[in-house]
Amino acid sequence: MGAAFLSSWPWDNLGFFKYVLYGPLVGKALAGRAWEAASPDRWLCLLLALFALRALTYQLWSSYSNMLFLTRRRRIVRDGVDFEQIDKEWDWDNFLILQITMAATALYAFPSLRHLPGWNTGGLAVAAVLHVAATEPLFYAAHRAFHGARLFARYHALHHSNMVPTPFTAGFATPLEHVVLGLLMALPLAGACAAGLGSVGLTFAYVLSSDFLRAMGHCNVELFPGGLFRSLPLLRYLIYTPTYTRSTTPGRRPTSASSCRCSTAWAARSTPAPGSCRRRTEQGWTRCRTSCSWRTWWT
What we know:
Layout lengths: L22 H9 L10 H24 L2 H4 L11 H6 L5 H16 L11 H26 L2 H6 L20 H20 L5 H18 L8 H6 L29 E2 H6 L7 H8 L1 H7 E2 L6
Antiparallel strand pairs: 1-2
Helix pairs in contact: 1-2, 2-5, 2-9, 5-8, 6-8, 12-13
């Protein structure tokens, strides 16, 4: 049986030369002097800047998570990253090539998107509503589907194949998963633009905040004190934490706070209080495994 559809990257064999795929966009931006305010190709400059900032976001989170003098006591998985994982995640940024291609295609298909204003407050409200009403539920449904036996084996298992989460793990997934994620991220922005309220500022804010949260969620460093959630329990429904997205292989005992959550909490998508699962495992690992579900968002 051959490989599953969109389970591997078409440019896997290019190595470092995969960055040549940015060439057409960079070449057109240079030829059209896209950095000038009056240039009709200014949108290209903004698009390339956005994706450069996306890559920088993951790199900065990776640098922070490796600063052991700051993070040693708050690491969720105490183990270090081995050379095998480094090699596997070396091309973590493949999804940026895919999604900049998707974005450029949309901008060519709908020329009006190339002339968005700098900011429109109304668009922020529209995007927020669509994110809560559409993107989040659909993302939840997609993630549950990828955890099904058939899709997990063919696609999502790759994301879970590394034992120690890193910010680069957020991008370590198959093309199909990143196509789905890219389309879901585009929904709020497309809705705001369709309502005539889209803006460059909204696009940068929404995309970069999504990347910030994904990188933070996989950084393997718990940033929120457990007492915060015990004092304000409702925050666990609102705040996205690294403990929440802790990637765990069944049968492997966690070495610190983990994302083990009872099934009722999973159904409600609540964030577990950091440290709560560690106390639970001290009472008995077997009991924890049989009464809790292990889940993680792939991104």
